[in-house]
Amino acid sequence: MFRLMGGVDKIRASDAKKLAEGQEPGSDRVAAKTVSMSANILRFRTHRGASVDERAVPLRRAVIAGWTQRDSVAREKHIAELEALGVGRPTSTPIYYRVSASRLTTSEEIEAVGENSSGEVEFVLVRNEGGLWIGVGSDHTDRTVETYNVTVSKQMCDKPIAPELWCFEDVRDHWDSLALRSWIEENGEARLYQEGSVASILSPDQIIAGIAATGRLAEGTALFCGTLPAKGGIRPSKKFSFELFDPVRNVGISHAYTVDILQSAG
User: Fold this and answer.
1) Which CATH number fits domain 41-262: 3.20.20.70, 3.10.290.10, 3.10.310.10, 3.90.850.10?
2) Which of 16, 40, 189, 225 has the greatest number of beta carbons closer than 10 A?
3) Any idea where the domains of the chain sit in the sequence?
4) Exposed, middle or buried, 114 (CB in 10 Å: 0-12/13-18/19+)?
5) Are 42 and 104 in contact (CB under 8 A)?
6) Strand boundaries in the chain, DSSP class E
7) Cα gap 139→236, rounded to integer Å
8) Among residues 57, 62, 60, which one has the least CA distance to residue 24?
9) Which has the closest alpha carbon to 243: 134, 145, 158?
10) How far apart are CA 198 and CA 226, in angstroms?
């Protein structure tokens, strides 16, 4: 729990607006009242140039961007994949879903109710201490709930993130060369599930612009930025592995997790 010190007996209207937008209240207050905001604090290894640090990152907002493909044909293919599962077409593209920041995790194990949930690899943008960082995560989703309410389906499952972040400025000049991949486990073997360039997805600046009029993510925000088509169609697996790879620097960020299935009692 983070505490913002200061203030009079009430939060002023201007500060309330800042809190709603994920910003910190102004520093022009006089002593007295404590206001609290919850944050999910995750530890990351961060890379900026040749520097590597460990840091605790407080995350207060989590957003899932959907249908972010640059190419309309690829976007239609992903929509068709989901329609085959009974998911209705989006009202607009891209579209943004808010989920609880408490759903973000760097754990190697998550729990899900029933066997019809699955992951999908996405690059993730994180705003921390004024800087923009890039990582990789999985928008693990309950596919049964998704058929009648996409927003609720996103909230049903934890969102694993690899515990490593790159400074976005280190990859900005060769962004389109980065690649995303994921694997599932089928019949005891790892099978390539998704693969493609981030060039098939809208650029980070374009995705941010759709949710932040200023073009800048609010401090403490994690933004999942869309996925790639699944080879062989969307399907569940009890193990999901994923990576973001930079061929220019020959480095990658990877993570894997297992799914502990909780039985539904009805």
Assistant:
1) 3.90.850.10
2) 225
3) 41-262
4) middle
5) yes
6) 2-6, 33-37, 40-48, 51-59, 61-66, 95-99, 104-105, 109-113, 117-118, 121-128, 131-138, 141-142, 159-160, 164-167, 179-186, 189-197, 221-224, 239-246, 251-262
7) 13
8) 60
9) 134
10) 10
Tokens found for residue 154: 């996103």
pLDDT mean by block of 10 residues, the chain; 266 residues? 34 38 42 55 97 97 94 80 81 90 98 95 97 98 92 95 98 98 95 97 96 94 96 94 98 98 89
Closest C-alpha to 252, from 136, 107, 121: 136
**Which residue in this structure is represented by tokens 């973000």?**
104
Instruction: Note if the pTM is more than 0.90.
Output: no
Mention every residue, 6+ apart, whose C-beta is less than 8 A from residue 241. Answer: 182, 183, 184, 190, 254, 255, 256
Alpha-carbon separation of residue 227 from 15, 109, 258 (angstroms): 35, 21, 20
The two structure tokens encoding residue 266: 């009805």
Which are the contacts of 213, defined by CB distance < 8 A and separation ≥ 6?
none
